[in-house]
Amino acid sequence: MKKLVFISAVSGVGKSTACEYIKKNNLLDDYVIFDIDDLENINDYNENTYNCFYENAIKKAVTLSKDKNIVIGSCINPNDIEKINMPNEIESYINILITCSNEELRNRLKARDESRQCSSDEYIKGQIDYQQYLLRNIELYQMHVDNTEDVVENVTRKITNFIKYGEKMII
Prior knowledge:
Layout: E1 2-8, H1 15-24, E2 31-35, H2 36-39, H3 50-65, E3 69-74, H4 78-81, E4 90-99, H5 102-111, H6 121-136, E5 143-146, H7 152-165
Parallel strand pairs: 1-3, 1-4, 2-3, 4-5
C-alpha cells in the first residue's frame, strides 16, 4: 500500500522548484516525486475532465512508482480530492499547501519567461484569487508553508520532515 502526498500551490509559488529540489537531493528516498505535468498533458485538462485528469495521473504515478510512495506537485483543489476514485494501492494521502504573499506571487509571475504565458495581469489576478480561495480552505491541508521570505532548502526541509515524522494522514 502506498501513501500519496499532494504538494499544492498556484503557478509561481514554487511547488515545482520544491519538488525538483526534493528529487535532486533524494530527500525522500522511499517516495517518487512527480510534477503533475510529468503524468498528464495539461492540454487535456478542462473543468469537465478534472476528476478524470487527476485519476489518470494518480494511476500513472502508482504504476511508475513501483513499490515506493508518491509525491505529486500540482494545483489540485483539496475539495475535489474526495471526488477522485483513488486506486486501491493508495492507502492514505496528505495535502501540503505552499503559498507566498500576493505581491511576491505577482513579482515571480512577472519575472517568468514570456513563453510561459503567465505574466498578464489577468492571469496573475486569477492565480492570486485561487491562492486566496485555497487559504480560505486551509483546514483541508495538513501542512501550510509560506515561502515569501524563505529559501527552497528551508521549505523542502520543513516539508520532508513533516512527511517523514509528522504525518497526519487522511484515511
